[in-house]
Write a structure and sequence with these properties.
Strand order of the largest sheet: 6-5-4-1-2-14-13-3-12-11-7
Structural class: alpha/beta
Strand content: 15-25%
Radius of gyration: 26 Å
Largest sheet: 11 strands, mixed
Shape: elongated
């Protein structure tokens, strides 16, 4: 996958690959977190639209195809044009046709329509076939999905960026999220493209939902783990969704609610949580107290009494246990080093490399040279280097930033992140400056 962002938050321009493990480096206030928030809003809007309405549209397409197939009878097998262009079964047709963009739909329908005069059909049956094609066009070009996704996108983006989505000085922001080019089919849209302006969000291209991760989890602090009860109480009036009226950012709502999901055991995901995290203790949600508790050696502790570093690994283990992290579900973790000793940063980097190798798309932002070097080391150790991409935030002027691909020039990252430490390394120079005052 790939995401392109223009004029959102402090990001002027970003073009980021999401092939396995994506590392975005830079100092504070450099736009690193913007990519995760945009990804969260985009994938959540798609998944919610898919769950709430996309299946109904699929039913309409299936009904229209069945009518067309019944009226064509065996001609759809014996006529060369129909045999090549019509899917073998209506079930296959639903998947193929719903993935077409508007131009693809027009091309498909016009091809079938042009073939009708040459078929051995009675005038009435030919007319009925034209009517069936009209019904199919209506089902395929229904724009209600566009409106539903656009409204949800604007709501989620407004909440994630507290209403300040578009970069200062810009009139419009744009996002393009594209699928895997290696698996794309001719005429099939695998792209979500939209713009955000003063009048709202406008969809330029809507993809087949199956081409993107089914879900996304954005973690910006594991410390919310010991605030579960308080946050759930705040959300009590909003039980059903990541509502724009809730006083908490949507990704935090999503994170907290996922902490309360029950463990599913070995069937939850593709990795063994104990083996991957090397943590022999665990978190679980106590529905009676509405709190997260930590269990080690048979003894339970309130989550608030647990070290921040343990919360980081404990949350990750819990998400592996309850299926939040599994195939086709993306993880975005914002600056995990904030709560980790350098030794644990190295261990956590190892875990993220293993997750990406297991097929879980991972995006991580960081300003720690320890963490980046650990990613490099474990990517090499696990033979995963070609699945890791590195980006760095650069100044673009007017306080805005560009994200630059530094996968082949990581030295730039280490120089930038080490500069503050280099500035204070010479203690003798500090003494000289002090004596000269």
């Amino acid at each position: 996958m790939r995401i392109r962002i223009s004029n959102i938050g402090c990001i002027s321009s970003a073009d980021v690959r999401l092939d396995g493990l994506t590392v975005i480096a830079g100092p504070n206030d450099s736009g690193k977190s913007t990519v995760g928030k945009v990804l969260f809003a985009s994938l959540k809007a798609l998944s919610e639209a898919s769950l709430s309405g996309f299946s109904n549209r699929a039913d309409d397409v299936a009904r229209a195809l069945n009518v067309l197939y019944e009226r064509l009878g065996t001609l759809r097998f014996t006529d060369s044009v129909l045999a090549v262009n019509l899917p073998t079964t209506p079930e296959d047709g639903v998947a193929k046709l719903m993935a077409l963009d508007r131009s693809g739909v027009d091309k498909f329908l016009n091809t079938i329509l042009a073939a009708l005069p040459g078929l051995e059909l009675t005038p009435r049956m030919r007319s009925l076939c034209v009517d069936a094609l009209t019904g199919l066009r209506k089902a395929l070009t229904d724009s209600s999905d566009d409106g539903r996704v656009a409204n949800r996108l604007r709501s989620l983006l407004d909440d994630e960026f507290t209403g300040d989505v578009i970069s200062a000085g810009a009139c419009e922001a744009s996002v393009t999220l594209s699928g895997d080019d290696s698996t794309s089919l001719p005429g099939i849209s695998e792209t979500l493209a939209y713009t955000v302006g003063a009048s709202g969000c406008r969809i330029a291209c809507l993809p087949a939902f199956r081409n993107f991760p089914d879900d996304i989890t954005l973690v910006d602090s594991p410390l919310y783990a010991h605030l579960v009860s308080a946050i759930l109480e705040t959300l009590r009036p909003y039980p059903d969704m990541l509502t724009s009226y809730a006083p908490v950012q949507p990704h935090i709502v999503d994170f907290v609610r996922k902490l309360t999901l029950p463990a599913m055991g070995a069937s939850a995901g593709v990795l063994n949580p104990d083996e991957v995290t090397k943590v022999r203790s665990s978190f679980r949600y106590d529905s009676q107290s509405r709190r997260l508790v930590f269990e080690r050696d048979g003894i339970e502790f309130p989550a608030g009494n647990v070290a921040s570093g343990l919360k980081t690994f404990g949350v990750l283990k819990l998400f592996l246990d309850n299926g939040v992290l599994s195939l086709n579900k993306m993880l975005v973790w914002d600056e995990p080093e904030n709560h980790l000793h350098p030794e644990w940063q190295i261990n956590f980097a190892d875990v993220l490399v293993q997750l990406s190798l297991a097929g879980i798309p991972v995006v991580v932002t960081t300003h720690s040279p320890y963490f980046i070097q650990a990613i490099r080391y474990y990517a090499a150790l696990h033979k995963a280097e070609r699945f890791v991409s590195y980006y760095m935030s650069d100044e673009a002027g007017d306080g805005r930033k560009n994200l630059r691909d530094v996968s082949d020039s990581l030295g730039d990252v280490f120089v930038t992140l080490a500069e503050p430490l280099n500035r204070i390394m010479n203690v003798d120079l500090a003494r000289e400056k002090n004596s000269a005052r």
